[in-house]
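Quick one, T. Sequence first:
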Amino acid sequence: MSYKCSTVELARLIRRNALQMVHRAKASHIGSALSIADIMAVLYGQVMQHDPVNPLSRNRDRFILSKGHACAAVYATLAETGYFGHEELLTYGQDFSWLMNHISHKVSGVEFSTGALGHGLPFGVGKALTARSRSEKWVTYVLLGDGEMDEGSNWEALMFASHHGLSNLVAIIDCNNLQSLTTVSGTLSLEPLAEKLSSFGCDVSDIDGHDHNELFNAISYCSSNKPRAIIARTVKGRGVSFMENQIDWHYRNPSDEQLYAALSELEKIN
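Structure tokens:
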């Protein structure tokens, strides 16, 4: 599916919607949502085969958000690409809403509920193996956090994917180097991450996670017999200067004044 506007514009709309949702709900994780907006825009605007009119199409590509707390960006993406109306975004984080504060499979277009970290990639590997066993051509994309890569289940999943040559699996790691309370490098360093992923049998790309051309080229590349692992170097809070690289915005929500300032910055993005 090709989105009706540019991926740059789609990313801006994702960020704007996510900010408004988190502000309205007095919720958390806006830094994480802003971090992945460009990845979401390229996936849904250029790369993935998906159909909002028929969200359970057998031939659809599968997207799994393993870092389930960044769901505001995914819900915003789904609304912008036609899975449900924008009015649904107004219910985010409210009692009895489908749009929970961690991503829910009850929402149209969402494949899998996540919250506890380290579950999305193993699930995605299972999806990729299913497609392979049925000789089906759809691809499974899994978006993880770099802090989440401390979970051993991810490395087990990569070994399994490599062993079975699951080239229909693409793992995208949102590397913003911030976890809930401090840096990833200060908690449990992942580097040299590219070499580690390669040693686990992955075909690896290390890119600027906000450059849409680099994202498109890396995500679209097809390996013949290896799972793909993309290290997307990002900035937590990207697009809002006072949120960028600030650990506070993992849990804080913006005040009325901060929301206005953030939205004003986004309006200046070309």
